[in-house]
Design brief:
- By secondary structure, this protein is of the alpha+beta class.
- 35% of the residues lie in helices and 36% in strands.
- Strands 1, 2, 3, 4, 5, 6, 7, 8 and 9 form a nine-stranded mixed beta sheet that branches.
Length: 166
């Protein structure tokens, strides 16, 4: 047991140093983010230069700028905002889930399970979907059905919130 403790105490400083190195990318600042973003049905951006990307992850909202620290994240339902390279135009998309990868060279890949421009959201359809999701949750019996209904409710709540940002 003493060997295990001393092994862990030797490893811990290495982990702290390794984690500390992650706070800053060593890549040269390209002055823009190179974004690739799509869903299974559509590619929205293909290695396009943008100024900033804002994503909602399971850990919270992240603003991704040039020379951002490398990271992986699981997208949560919410608004993905893209500030175009000109700095004056913002494109907003609703994403249901997916993943984001940020690399040290300022390339960003986002694959959304579902994505739609916020301008195309239909308020009446979202309200009806939310009501149906709440109904689904009330009648769900199995753990699987309850989990699916809760996800459906969460997505529709996020869609409703997106309407406020439309």
């Amino acid at each position: 047991m003493a060997t295990l403790r001393s092994g862990l105490s030797l490893m811990r400083p290495c982990l702290v140093r390794s984690m500390g190195a992650r706070y800053m990318s060593t890549a040269e600042d390209p002055g823009h983010v190179i974004l690739t973003f799509g869903s299974p049905g559509e590619a929205f951006y293909n290695a396009k230069n943008v100024a900033q990307v804002k994503v909602v992850t399971m850990d919270g909202t992240a603003g991704i700028y040039p020379n951002h620290v490398p990271m992986l994240g699981a997208l949560a339902p919410g608004i993905l905002s893209i500030l175009e390279e000109d700095g004056s135009t913002t494109s907003n998309f609703f994403v249901s889930s997916g993943g984001v990868t940020v690399n040290a060279d300022s390339t960003v890949q986002i694959l959304a399970e579902e994505a739609v421009p916020v301008d195309l959201l239909d308020e009446a359809a979202i309200r009806a979907g939310y009501d149906a999701a709440r109904q689904q949750l009330q009648v769900a019996k199995s753990d699987k059905d309850i989990a699916e209904a809760e996800i459906n409710v969460e997505v529709h709540e996020s869609l409703q919130a997106a309407l406020g940002e439309k």
